Amino acid sequence: MNGFAGHVWVLALVAAVCTLITVHLLAVRRTAGSSLTGAVVLTLAVAAIPALRGEPPHYVAGVALTAGGVVAVVWATGRSRRHRSARRSARADYEAGTAAVPLFAALAERDRLAAELHDVAAHRLTGIVVAAGAALRLADRVRTGDALRHADEAGREAVRELERLTKLDATAAGFTEVDALAAAHAVDYRRTVDKAPAGSTEAAYRVVREALTNAARYAAGATVRVRIEPTDDRDEPVRAGGDHLFVVTVTDDGGTAAEPGLGTGRGLAGLAATVTATGGTFRAGPHDAGAGWSVRASLPAATVLPLRRWPLWRGTAALDYALVALAIALSLGASLLSADVPAPFGTVLPALVTVVLSGLHAVPLAWRSRAPGRALAAVLSALLLWWACDRAGWTQPPVSDIFLVYGWVELTLVHSVGVRLPWRRGLCAPLAVAAVGGLALASGSGITGGRTAAWAVLAGALALPALAVWSWGRRTARRHERLRAADTRRRVLLDGDADAAVSAQRLLFATALRATALRHARAVVAAAEEGDLRAVREEARAGLTALRDLLSGLPTGDDTDDADDAPPPTVSGITALAARHGAVVRYVGARRPLPAAVEVFAYRTASALMAVGVTLTVRTLPDGVEVSGPAPAVPAVERRLRALADAAGGTLSTTDRGAVRVWLPEAFPWRSE
Q: What span, in angstroms and rounded, lies between the C-alpha atoms of 441 and 455?
């Protein structure tokens, strides 16, 4: 019989170990939802065994509580391992891909300069060619004088803008510049929008400028109308990721082409890319009814940044709540594991007091990562309350036994205080634990002699391990600080390399610009001063031709020798990735350096969402990054996104308008008090 009982215990031990291993592997390899479901099922299965054997209810409850606490900790440690492994992999990818950062930074700067060069030079030079051509055809002295004055003024503006571009002192245009542009062209203009993000106002300025330039080229003599108004189109906020929009429309009623061959071939395509990159939509084409041309762009007027709440199973919060479960399991569950009803649970009042005090002593562990100082104060207050109830004879076991068995709760919080708080504030924590713990131990029945002397001796003895645990936390904090400083230094060096590559690209571009369009713009001014209108037109046309040759000579991302190089796995690298997939990415929020792992997680998320023609939104939030776009049609892609967000400690959500949002936290959910 004894041999059979021994075999039963061995089998129970093996089953328990297998259960814990299964829970750990589920937490490491599966998402939070599925692994937590598995952990709960296994816990209930363990609790069902004594119930099926006919054990008393208090014993079954003790098994359920104890198993739940142990399983919770094992599950949380598995989740922690999953997060660490994912971040380690992301940092490795980041280190491997940083060599491409300077290259792609230079390519992005080249594309930006090309777009701005087209907008600046083409607008001024086209106006000069159109005015000069019309004056030469009419051979009217007044018209010729007006054309020369216009050439002189517009040529000087072109020179100033091109010189600014060569110096690369670019500033974003606002609604004031749009107003001045419309006034200069004497168009029918109305604006009822007062405020918008800088990217939207810059895009609005470019839309109006390009549309007015095209109207001068292809619709001479037409009536042009420019409107900047709020939109009531309910479908458009969906495409803009939930932002409020305003609409820019430029229309004309048709006309004749002023001069052939003035275009560069990149105007509307570049404009569409600019608008969609800000999160808007762009349309250009003939009127649906009648003659003329219409350009319409919807742009974000305000950005709505979502609020984030941490689920209980994310990041270090999972371990915090698991520790709560373990503390309750050990204090209550272990007490219930007996054949008879334990003394603390014999009547209602002692049972109620024991349950309440156990909860007060355990629940503050949930604040361990967010507010360890307050959590420790709450735990010590619960211990003092237990001491008071113990003195009144309301509780069993005595508070001295509670502290001996469950003092790890206080020490865990002392370690967290050492990690999270400055040492001047945190040094009080181990001393407070020693004082309150000494009081609890000195109240025990085994103490002989003076209680005050016993308290002093026991508090001094407890101060040593408490200070050691606090010092361990301080060393952990310093190690984390060194790692953050090293990451910052690496980021500074990488940013320096990228800035150097960008500067080199700007220098090459400026050199080519000075030898082409800028030289012709200066020649236009000189010819206007000399009164040679024919030379004005020829120099302006030559400037446009040089501009077209310069822009057409720039290689694109598909035909460069660098096309085989993968974009760096960073937030900035998403732009190059989108260009290769025929997609568009827009950035919302203040751009700032992010941890390497978060950069890679954002890149991986965008890569999974990439498809031809889609617009992705990357929002930089105060607590992380959100990548959103159309929901993938393939279920496997959504599962991959969910697993990626889970491994990064973030969340995936879908909207009723067919969009998916992946939030990637910058850090796990803890902060100093």
A: 7
